[in-house]
């Protein structure tokens, strides 16, 4: 999220994406997906907490709306994770939640990243004067 590489691995969207893809692979293989569902839910919660900490630390002005979007998405993840892992429709549900996460990253998280880059650029300009 920061212009520099994040120290907190929970901020890494690549890990989140890999967990969702792993969950889909397990579901498509017919194996028990209970552990992958729990991993996706846990990581998603930690990811949102880490982002919210980052927003607070940097005084991000759109924090309330961003946090509300996290709560909505977390509700989707939790609903997905409470479904029966053997439900044949679960893979479609997972794909739908993945699409919502991708939209969140592409739109909402991009605005946060842009803000952090601008803040960092302003801090660099302020130290060079």
The CATH C-level name is Mainly Alpha
Radius of gyration: 17 Å
Task: State the helix count.
Answer: 4
Tally of strands: 0
The share of residues in helices is over 70%
Plain-language structure description:
The protein has 129 residues and is mainly alpha-helical. The chain has one domain (9-128): Four Helix Bundle (Hemerythrin (Met), subunit A), CATH 1.20.120.50. Helices cover 77% and strands 0% of the residues. The radius of gyration is 17 Å and the shape is elongated.
Can I get a quick summary?
By secondary structure, the chain is an all-alpha fold. Helices cover 77% and strands 0% of the residues.
What is the strand and helix layout of this fold?
Layout lengths: L12 H17 L4 H24 L5 H19 L8 H39 L1
Helix pairs in contact: 1-2, 1-4, 2-3, 3-4
Q: What labels would you give this structure?
A:
129 residues; mainly alpha; Four Helix Bundle (Hemerythrin (Met), subunit A); 4 helices
């Amino acid at each position: 999220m920061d212009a520099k590489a994040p120290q907190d691995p929970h901020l890494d969207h690549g890990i989140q994406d890999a967990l969702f893809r792993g969950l889909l692979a397990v579901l498509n293989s017919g194996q028990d997906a209970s552990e992958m569902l729990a991993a996706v839910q846990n990581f998603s919660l930690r990811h949102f907490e880490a982002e919210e900490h980052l927003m607070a630390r940097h005084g991000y002005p759109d924090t309330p709306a961003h946090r509300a979007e996290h709560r909505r998405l977390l509700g989707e993840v939790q609903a997905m994770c409470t479904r029966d892992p053997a439900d044949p429709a679960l893979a479609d549900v997972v794909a739908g939640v993945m699409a919502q996460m991708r939209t969140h990253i592409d739109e909402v998280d991009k605005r946060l990243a842009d803000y952090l880059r601008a803040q960092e650029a302003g801090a660099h300009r302020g130290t060079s004067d």
